[in-house]
Amino acid sequence: MTSEVAWTPKARAVLAAADELFYEQGIHAVGVDTIAARAGVTKKTLYDRFESKERLVVEYLRERDRQWREFLAVRLGAVSADAAGDRIDAVLVASAEWTAQRSGKGCSMVNAHAEISDPAHPAYPVIIGQKRWMADLFVDILTAAGVPDPVGTADLLMLVHEGALVCAGMGVVERPFDRARAAARLLLEPTGR
Fold this sequence. Notes:
Blueprint: H1 9-25, H2 32-39, H3 43-50, H4 53-76, H5 84-102, H6 108-115, H7 124-144, H8 150-170, H9 176-188
Helix pairs in contact: 1-2, 1-4, 4-5, 4-7, 5-8, 5-9, 6-7, 7-8, 8-9
């Protein structure tokens, strides 16, 4: 990937089509012909804008990550930085809302990782980077509130959060984010935060 994407209206149409198709059908299952047809562009236009399917996958995941971070920032902005329990609860509520509105098949990053587990793939750092960012967010929230062992507690919260995402996508636990919120409260209860 040598250059920045020129975000023309056609490039945005391709990305929107890829977003829908990759998420609904899977990255490997969807070909560029299908994406181009859905976007109403030629394959040449798709390749002119994105260079390769791999590059399109990278941009799809970057855009999903950007939208999630923006969505979450609004929710966290309404909660005091020194109230770890309230901020963790806000993350879990935001995840529940996001999932209900946009992610009925589970986390796009988890789904992408199921298809792209090779660290040499250009999308791999985006996938892992998003999950590392979430883990770091938990550490930052806990550190700001003075919670003892913020890294260890953040690891546990990450497991709770990611478990809720997977269970929501698979439909194997009823109200997974409510359960995750209860688990988070139990984890934070001894800290009084």
